Design the sequence.
């Protein structure tokens, strides 16, 4: 469990993190979302004990970070941004070094290294220098070093940044597989990732929490939530008819692709109404879909301060 | 395994897995030999001692030690490894000390490899071996003081070239603190008592007194204090600079 209370970090006059409070529970994968420079990494650096907060409290698994920093560091596995490691070391030496520094007893070091090599499929590069590895392997070495002591808490700063789609998929699968008995915080600006791995997403902008919801709740905030899109040749008069339906807020027509999007009033379910309407008017439709909501739109609105919910909160 | 020991091992491996270690050792051995024989006139003096050899160590260290110390921390900061290192459950003092000790051990290895010099002089005559051992200890202490300064400068700068130059300059000032060229700079505006204090911090004074065979406790304590203070400063600067 991670508990942050009124966390603030100032660099000279610049406020990087501003009065941040949240709790991440065991078994939860918490996603930190936000534009670059929003304070995600700074928050993570404070939780892992690398940076001293200007004010506020951090409690990890019942241990206060400021009373027992080493105790907290023992509980945490950390993958810093860009997965730094000693380039001139071989993978096996590097993992052994981390295991020793983590205080794993001499007899157990070899077993732990083998375990983590197996888990991350690093057998192929076991004796290779880290500088010769591809980005994907480097990231996996970084993850391996983070989980070598089987920590209760994992803090991953952009774990999939710069990986190809297959590697991203692997890393996500791995995170999900570990999620059950750990507390995991990861930061990302890839929105699909939130959907793929996170149970909860905290959106940070300018050092403040602007949203704290499950991914589907976030999607509900989108104007695309429950919107219906269809591809068809359609008369403008019919579009007007749709627009005048009581359950419809707005209609968007893109002539280039003959694509129409119907936005519902207050996110209500309008799929049946629209499909009935199309059938009644004998319009041949090549595609008809309902949208869950667009995270990128919500993200943009929230972080740029346009979202109504946020404005309400502020008021 | 003690974390300090792990760091020392890793750092030493780090030196020897790059060309740095070999270049350093080879140059150190060649130059110390060249200085002793050609500039110091080890042969021509017809005396069975190694003082021409040891007399040039401060000047060799002046540019070789910063070359070792410059990457000690700046490399960690540049590569982001510092974040990894400082979130491990290890005390900061262990990190500072471990890194310093491994660099010191590395220089000790280079110094040890000058043993043919000692064998030759014993073959050629009957030197005072006690004096030679004292000089070796003095040389090692001096290198340690330079390294501690280098450690602090290296943590303050991400740029290795800057770390190298600043370390060399600061070591140079400390080395010559007792000589007129440094004292004259302060003489016009500092009271005599402070001038004496500056003069007494001269590495060269303490080093040459050990070199004369007087392994005085005061000199050893002096170097130990210099190392301690600069390592403490390293720790403080590390706290201030690690996040930059």
Sequence:
């Amino acid at each position: 469990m991670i508990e942050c209370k009124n966390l603030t970090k100032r660099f000279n006059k610049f406020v990087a993190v501003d009065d941040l409070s949240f709790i991440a529970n065991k078994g939860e994968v918490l996603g930190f979302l936000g534009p670059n420079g929003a304070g995600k990494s700074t928050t993570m650096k404070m939780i892992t004990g690398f940076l001293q907060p200007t004010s506020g409290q951090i409690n990890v698994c019942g241990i206060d970070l400021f009373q027992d920093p080493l105790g907290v560091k023992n509980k945490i596995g950390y993958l810093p941004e860009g997965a730094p490691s000693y380039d001139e070391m071989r993978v096996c030496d590097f993992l052994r070094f981390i295991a020793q520094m983590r205080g794993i007893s001499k007899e157990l070091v070899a077993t732990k290294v083998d375990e983590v090599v197996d888990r991350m499929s690093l057998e192929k590069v076991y004796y290779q220098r880290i500088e010769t590895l591809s980005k994907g392997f480097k990231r996996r070495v970084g993850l391996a070093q983070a989980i070598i002591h089987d920590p209760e808490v994992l803090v991953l700063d952009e774990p999939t940044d710069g990986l190809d789609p297959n590697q991203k998929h692997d890393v996500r699968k791995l995170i999900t597989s570990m999620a059950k008995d750990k507390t995991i915080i990861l930061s990302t600006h890839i929105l699909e990732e939130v959907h793929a791995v996170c149970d909860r997403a905290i959106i940070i902008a300018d050092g403040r929490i602007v949203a704290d919801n499950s991914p589907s709740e976030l999607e509900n905030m989108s104007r695309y939530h429950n919107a219906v899109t269809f591809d068809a040749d359609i008369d403008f008069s019919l579009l007007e008819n749709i627009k005048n339906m009581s359950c419809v807020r707005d209609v968007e027509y893109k002539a280039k692709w003959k694509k129409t999007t119907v936005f519902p009033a207050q996110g209500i379910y309008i799929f049946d109404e629209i499909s009935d309407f199309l059938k009644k008017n004998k319009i041949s439709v090549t595609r008809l879909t309902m949208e869950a909501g667009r995270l990128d739109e919500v993200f943009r609105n929230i972080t740029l301060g346009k979202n109504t919910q946020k404005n309400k909160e502020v008021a | 395994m003690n974390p300090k020991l792990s760091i020392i091992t890793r750092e030493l491996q780090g030196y020897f897995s790059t060309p740095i270690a070999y270049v350093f050792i080879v140059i150190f051995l060649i130059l110390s030999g060249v200085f002793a024989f050609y500039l110091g006139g080890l042969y021509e003096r017809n005396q069975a001692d190694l003082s021409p050899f040891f007399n040039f160590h401060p000047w060799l260290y002046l540019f070789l030690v910063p070359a070792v110390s410059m990457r000690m921390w700046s490399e960690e900061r540049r590569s982001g490894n510092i974040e990894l290192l400082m979130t491990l459950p290890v005390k900061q003092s262990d990190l500072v000390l471990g890194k310093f000790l491994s660099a010191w051990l590395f220089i000790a290895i280079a110094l040890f490899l000058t043993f043919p010099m000692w064998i030759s002089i014993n073959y050629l005559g009957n030197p005072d071996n006690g004096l030679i051992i004292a000089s070796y200890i003095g040389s090692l202490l001096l290198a340690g003081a330079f390294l501690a300064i280098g450690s602090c400068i290296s943590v303050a700068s991400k740029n290795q070239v800057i770390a190298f130059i600043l370390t060399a300059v600061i070591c140079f000032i400390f080395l010559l603190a007792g000589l007129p060229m440094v004292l004259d700079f302060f003489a016009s505006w500092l009271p005599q008592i402070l001038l004496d204090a500056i003069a007494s911090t001269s590495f060269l004074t303490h080093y040459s007194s050990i070199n004369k065979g007087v392994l005085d406790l005061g000199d050893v304590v002096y170097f130990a204090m210099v190392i301690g203070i600069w390592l403490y400063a390293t720790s403080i600067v590390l706290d201030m600079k690690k996040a930059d």
Remarks:
- Chain A touches chain B through 31 residues (CB under 8 Å).
